Amino acid sequence: MTGASWPRLLAAEWRLFAAGWSNVLLLLALAALSGFSVWGGVERTLETRAAQAQALQAHVNGWQNKRERFLQLQAGELDPDVFSNPKRADLVVMSHRAPLVLPPLPLAPLSAGSVREGHDIIEAGMTSRHGRGSETTENPVNRLDGPLDLAFVVAWILPLVLLVLSYEGLAKDREQQIAPLLASGATPLRRIMVARAAVRFGAAFLVVGSIATLAVALAAGPDGVLTTAADLALWLTGLAGHIIFWLIVSTAINAQARSAIGAGLSMLGVWILLSLVTPVMIALWVSSATPRPDRLGYVLQLRAMQNDLAERADEVRAAFYSENPARRPVRPAFSEYDAYFVETYYPRQRILDRQFAPIARDLHTLQVRQAARLRLMSALSPPLIMKRLTDDLAGHAPERRLAFFDSTGAFEARIRDSFDVKLASRRPLTLADYDLMPMHSPSVEPLLNRLQPASALLVSLFTVILLSGIATGFRLRRVGP
Amino acid sequence: MIYAVARREILLQLRDGRLLVTAALMVALLGAATAVGWSRWVTGEAERVRFSEQSYDQWLNQGPKHPHRAAAYGIYVAKPETPLAVFEPGLRPYAGRTLWLEAHSNAAFSNAPADDDLTASPGLGESSGAGLLQLLGGLIALVLGSLSVARERETGVLRQLLAQGIKPSSWLAGKYLGLAGVLAIPLLPFGAIVLIATLWVSPAGTAHDTALRAVVALGAGAAYLLALLAVGMVVSVIARSSRFALMTALGIWVIGSVLAPRAASHLALRLAPTPDAAVYAKAIGDNFMSGFGTEPGWDERLKRLERDTLAQYRVSRLADLPVGFSGLRMTAMDRWTIQVSDRQHQRLQAIYDRQARVRLVVAALAPFIAARSVTQGMAGMDWPHYQHYAAEAELYRRAFNERMNAAITRSLRGEAWEMNAERDVWASVPPFHYDSPDFRWAMRAQAPPVVILILWLLAALSALALVGRRLRP
């Protein structure tokens, strides 16, 4: 007894599914919510890209203006006053900061992440960036509930939509005494259930997948579509797995449930367990196994270093000059301010950075460790897998921030190497020095960086699917009317 | 009769294994969240006290240096938390714990735990006792309510009851009270624990204030759950099948408790966008240099200061002044900066107020937001409390900055800049002392959400009474 062929069965189930106005309405609501969330994501990505380009361009223009002033001075067209002599390194580069940007990844429109504004632009220069405050104008109330992005919709709302679309699967037929009729036909009940799940899979995947693809393509622009393909394929694989998992749960419950209401309540229970309870439990465990960095301790440590260096100012200065004798000033100070900043403040800043940079790096390393644990534990909660997968592919993986921190350090070193001796020794700047200022241009990050964490999450997801699929398969063999 | 129906409802629900499992799960979750909240609060407060003391100690022992450089080194302070923060950490993960009070800019929060901690927002962002209670408790209330009448109708019980001449409104009232009692079974002990624990750890003299705050917070939670229970029952009366009632209740919960808070933030930011930090800082910088309205910019002010000072001391050169002009200049610069930054801050505050109004409008449709707001406010962990702390700290910053500038003016002569001050000058700045606002202040700040919750409860009960009159089998 083989019954109807798969295509005919699927076509019949699709017609039944599409005839239900509540199904269509629900899919439309899902489409509207997904569209609304990715619309915000596309806007956010384009704004971020524009703000980053503007910051980089402003730096280029600013530096160019300084260079112009230098040329004017050389041509005798500029009368340098005390505070704006373009030949003095202390005035030109001491407080100059060059921006580095962390550009949005191809899937950035799908997740806003949980970091605060301005995290994607860091300024580096001659003085330490570690002692600066991290001022923000953000209203934290707006961050408290999390962003309304596709990562949230897919991880938490999509399963609820699938619940409503599929909770009646076979249970309603049982209630209405249609199940015996179905069972008496040539097509086995399990095949009908699988066909129903497949139809719902197709509908949900089509709606969310196509909206996400469109958003990513819109944000990438015509030149970037190809570069997004691999990231998108990875994410769509995750999306497919996520939908399959929830449909397996629904099928398993429907194989057992005697009433639709019972099936609905059971599915709601599973959703609460996997989407609300387990993530909270995982978070509690991870936060105790990998406690957050003691930020207050770091602040005190930094201030203690500052105090210590201030008290040992003469010793620090002597060590700074003996490390590189070319730094020793070749002329007396221009003013009291210049004397302090060049001979006391600057050496301290360099030493402070050398001492504190490894400690600051620890903050990021701890987050990387937390992320690794979270990914591992996510295997217990498919919604959490999907959330992490989307966040990671959208560029919010802590590994990426650590790499950004490291590249900032390297870029900062380039700026300092270019101007260190001129600034410390009070040698006049030349036109060649102006041409030495490094300009940051963001490089394309290899897919491999994202592939590793993403593949670990996908392996977890598909392992969960495999195990639950096998269990459901066994149960379906015995499914009756 | 109402009592008899309520009693029967409680018994029936308690016999239902699913409810017991749900209640047990809820109690376990709340217990775990409370235990973790307790541990975080105790560690956090110890950390905060240590941090504040050490930061002040570092200020006192910073060695001889120029007073302006000392002011630039500054002092860190950290916001204290009430014991209710054990159950409702509110903005703690996102608002930042510390304020760096230094010479150049207004006090602003930094070092937010969520910046370093991936586990701060793992899912729906709820790992606090109050958050879980309102999120999951709301779902349970809606589900209980939505199945209450529809199932009786489907099984034919309702037809039999009405045929016996039972008054529908009394039957509904009994059912409502019974279900409210069922909700209270796991939640009342939780409330009692909250009250006792917070009173136990309250600092001396604040027990009364803490108790009032706890009572309002618990009352808000109860009003929210009772309103949702009534909404669920209204749905149940109207719906023709329990399936439809359950799905409608689920839809209400998803929209009201899961989507609405995020949508409110999204809307608030869209309708009242916050300027980013760089734009805000630039506006202050531009105002400082160029002035605004009839107020001249800094260059003009400096010239005026030089002119007035020379006239006051009857000398012709700054170098001949009997006081340190750099101190006077720093004082004038700080006062002008304060004027400029206050102006920009008022604009920013107006944006925050507009965002709060948008959230309030959404809260009128989704009481979950109002309930969260009240518990956060009563726990002292909402934005008004954070801003109150920042405002007090800002006054302290301005005062110590003035002292540093006065020390420069006193110690120097003429145009000189370099000098070193010592511990006696640092010690002239007392440690920062902060008095948290009292219960009445918190209530004033939270009056609109409290009113929303009361209106919701009244409206839901009225709707239940209204549909109850037309109850059909």
Report on this model:
The complex is a heterodimer of chains A (481) and B (473). With 481 residues, chain A is mostly helical. In chain A, 73% of the residues lie in helices and 2% in strands. Chain A is built from 16 helices and 2 strands. Chain A has a two-stranded antiparallel ribbon with strand order 1-2. In chain A, α1 packs across α8, α8 packs across α13 and α10 packs antiparallel against α12. Chain B is mainly alpha-helical and 473 residues long. In chain B, α6 packs antiparallel against α10. The longest helix of chain B has 44 residues. Chain B is elongated and about 105 Å long. Chain B starts with a helix and ends with a helix. At the A-B interface, α2, α4, α5, α9 and α10 of A face α2, α4, β3, α5 and α6 of B.
Features:
heterodimer; A: 481 residues; mainly alpha; two-stranded antiparallel sheet; 16 helices; 2 strands; 73% helix; 2% strand; elongated; B: 473 residues; 3-stranded antiparallel β-sheet; 18 helices
List the helices and strands and how they pair.
The complex is a heterodimer of chains A (481) and B (473).
Chain A: H1 6-19, H2 21-74, H3 89-92, E1 97-101, E2 121-125, H4 141-144, H5 150-166, H6 171-175, H7 179-184, H8 189-256, H9 260-289, H10 295-311, H11 313-323, H12 336-377, H13 382-396, H14 398-425, H15 431-434, H16 447-477
Antiparallel strand pairs in A: 1-2
Helix pairs in contact in A: 1-8, 2-5, 2-8, 5-8, 5-9, 5-13, 8-9, 8-13, 8-16, 9-12, 10-12, 11-12, 12-14, 13-16
Chain B: H1 2-15, H2 17-60, H3 67-73, E1 75-78, H4 92-95, E2 98-101, E3 109-110, H5 113-116, H6 129-155, H7 157-163, H8 168-201, H9 207-238, H10 242-271, H11 277-290, H12 298-313, H13 325-365, H14 367-378, H15 383-411, H16 423-427, H17 439-445, H18 447-469
Helix pairs in contact in B: 1-8, 2-6, 3-15, 6-8, 6-9, 6-10, 6-14, 8-9, 8-18, 9-10, 9-14, 9-18, 10-13, 11-13, 12-13, 13-14, 13-15, 14-18
